[in-house]
Amino acid sequence: MNRISATRSELLARRAGIRLAIQGRDLLKEKRTALMREFDRLSADAVAAMQDLEEKARRARASLSEAVALEGPEAVGSAALAARNEIGVRLTAKSVAGVKIVDLEHDPVGRARTDRGYSLAATSPRIDTAAEGFETVVEVLLDFVAVELSLRRLAEEITRTTRRVNALEHVVVPRLEKERDFILNVLNERELENRVRLMRARSRTDERARQTGGLAERSPA
């Protein structure tokens, strides 16, 4: 505090700084509220998607196990190699309180039996069922990836915003208020001292005036 210049301009600067810090804190709180609202919405979607993914993956694994057991691992492996395919994906984004929320669009994953590349004569419906099950799993997984990425970005930004809110609320604003109060106290003390000096000066002036008046009355005409 000893380095602070206790002047009116510094007092005004501290008051302006406090107003600005409070405004910034309030804006950050509004941003955090918007981010948390979007996070809650996506979290509900993510939980539903995860449950759906787990169920579809369980069914797909059961279909695969059945196909391997009845058709043999070589037949299933050969069909899997023949069915390999690329899936086109496109990322788009929207901004929520300055955070990019990802949306992933992709080509259809599911295919007809005749489009999977393996010989229908050399395979059975069990392999078709397993292929269809895992195509469904991949489709749900692609949808889930975009949600998970958005959730991570939102969580990181919520954490950063919370740190900034806490810094303003518990460090910056209290420090500025303490400096403001210090400057105000010093200025008030100075004003009080000036008033006391002024009163003393006036008292001395009045006393001299009375003494001068008394001497004038006693002097001969």
Question: What is this structure, in a nutshell?
Answer:
With 221 residues, the chain is mainly alpha-helical. It is 76% helix and 7% strand.
How would you characterize this protein structure?
It is a single chain. A hairpin with a 2-residue loop joins strand 1 and strand 2. The chain has helices spanning 8-71, 73-82, 125-218; strands spanning 89-96, 99-106. Helices cover 76% and strands 7% of the residues. The protein has a two-stranded antiparallel sheet with strand order 1-2. The protein is rod-shaped, with a radius of gyration of 40 Å. The chain is built from 3 helices and 2 strands, in the order ααββα. It has a single domain (8-176), classed as Orthogonal Bundle (Helix Hairpins), CATH 1.10.287.3240. The chain has 221 residues and is mainly α. 14% of the residues are buried.
Classify the fold: give the CATH topology: Helix Hairpins
Which CATH class applies here?
Mainly Alpha
> What would the average pLDDT be, to the nearest integer?
86
| Structure summary, number of beta strands | 2
Largest sheet data: 2 strands, antiparallel
Strand content: 5-15%
Order of helices and strands: HHEEH
Helix run count: 3
Q: Given the helix and strand composition, which structural class is it? A: mainly alpha
How many structural units, i.e. domains? 1
Tell me the distance between the termini: 64 Å
Oligomeric nature of the chains: single chain
Query: If strands are numbered along the chain, what order do they take across the biggest sheet?
Result: 1-2
- Choose one word for the global shape: rod-shaped
- Judging by the overall fold, what is the CATH architecture? Orthogonal Bundle
Which residues sit in consecutive blocks of at least 5 with pLDDT less than 50? none
C-alpha Rg (nearest Å): 40 Å
Helix content: over 70%
Protein name: V-type ATP synthase subunit D
Function: Produces ATP from ADP in the presence of a proton gradient across the membrane.
Keywords: ATP synthesis, Coiled coil, Hydrogen ion transport, Ion transport, Plasmid, Transport
Region (Disordered): 202-221
